[in-house]
Prior knowledge:
By secondary structure, this protein is of the alpha+beta class. It has seven helices and 33 strands. The protein has two domains: 38-232, Beta Barrel (Cathepsin D, subunit A, domain 1), CATH 2.40.70.10; 243-423, Beta Barrel (Cathepsin D, subunit A, domain 1). The site of one 2-acetamido-2-deoxy-beta-D-glucopyranose (NAG) has 8 residues, from loops.
Amino acid sequence: MAASSPAPTQSLLAVLLLLFLSLAHAQELTSRPKPKAILLPVRKESATLQYTTTIRQRTPLVPVKLTVDLGAKSPWVNCQGGYVSSTYKPVLCGSKFCQLALFNSCSSTCYQPRPEPGCNNNTCGQYESDPFIPTAYYGELSTDAAVLRSTDGKNPGRTVSVPGGIVFTCGFDPLTQKLAKNAKGMLGLGRSGISLPSVLSSAFGFPNKFGMCLSSTRSRGVIIFGDGPYFLQPGKEVSQYLTYTPLIPNPVSTAVLAFLDEPSWDYFINVTGIKVNGKAVSLNPALLKINDAGNGGTKLSTVNPYTLMETSIYRAVMKAFLAEGKYLKRVSSVKPFEYCFNTTGVGSTRVGPAVPQIELLLGGSSWIIFGANSMVYVGNSGETMCLGIVDGGTDARTSIVIGGHQLEDNLVQVDMVNKRLGFTSSLLFYQTTCANFNFTVAA
Length: 443
Ligand SMILES: *[C@@H]1O[C@H](CO)[C@@H](O)[C@H](O)[C@H]1NC(C)=O
Ligand SMILES: *[C@@H]1O[C@H](CO)[C@@H](O)[C@H](O)[C@H]1NC(C)=O
Ligand SMILES: *[C@@H]1O[C@H](CO)[C@@H](O)[C@H](O)[C@H]1NC(C)=O
Ligand SMILES: *[C@@H]1O[C@H](CO)[C@@H](O)[C@H](O)[C@H]1NC(C)=O
């Protein structure tokens, strides 16, 4: 016998209840204003010097740890090893996100009996790279549900689910080898239409801007997607200290692998010269420009722990630093650094040890690197510090790569609305640090 259908009154009640629930849900959605900004805490891992964060993704939600990659086109997440989610969707060829990706491959076919995350037909293929190996793979672009924390710029706010989900490329086990412990992929924040900042900005309707404040200690720093305010204790609104310089395009990709004619998604700025203690260093100006092959220029990177300079630039800056720092006593080198000094007798200032200042000239403005960002303490005695800049080689693709140590305790704001980069130089000047965000959830 067939199961008896419910009595008419019962089904009417059920329909009314459903109607009521969906109205209540719609009410909730409309009565809650969209968040103006999204917050991610960022930690530096001492073993790998990678900056990591955790997002909650999939259905059911699971925490997914990712290494921050400032210049990558899109986030990527390992889809092998038990990716289970009822809301996983491949980005199909011709769909909105595939169009926003601009460069893609739509020829892929997956020869498996059944589709699964990372293996669907007619999907928008993208390259994803692990710059630490370095290697790249080709994977399908996808979306999945994600829940993130909103913020008013002062404290964490309520959690919000991202309308339409977040976009990422499906990665594979081998790509995760050199990532921080338990990291499942990388958080691409580059200047593309499918990077996390772009996707969050269009999902929530806030400006395509984000502030990044990396901590120099074990305490968490922050990335805040959306415009300021960005408050750090004790009550400093730090976006007021930003100075801006244009973000300039590089027409040729600098990634491990890319499509033909694909531009770079990295953030390049126009460094036109370098001074040490106010004195100009003589450099080959051609190296500071980005040439037709996409070589040269200056970019920011969170996957390089220390700034890299092409060999001739490196030599010239080191020579100038030593000339200005005659009072510093050299000690033996400690890898990866060449120039190390005895800290005994070196004065200390609000912005770190009293060493020559390195100034990146940016047309109208300049970014000064003070002791806290130029020097790295090595060993446990506190007696040795090294100049935290590394020789990038004579064949360096990008002449200057500003690395993590030089970005720490500086607020940088990527402003894609005005195609400019805001930077504060050292926040220690203003008696605060990137570890000073108030992570207490406001009542
Ligand atoms: C993809 O298409 C090919 C060729 O039509 C088919 O053999 C294969 O089963 C499909 N794969 C999936 C995962 O649907
Ligand atoms: C970089 O600055 C130099 C010197 O001011 C200028 O000539 C050049 O056009 C700038 N490059 C870009 C891409 O804006
Ligand atoms: C640094 O200098 C002090 C004082 O001259 C000396 O005692 C110490 O051993 C030196 N440390 C190193 C690492 O050279
Ligand atoms: C951090 O934020 C909470 C919630 O707004 C507030 O009660 C607390 O006083 C703040 N802490 C500091 C040190 O300002």
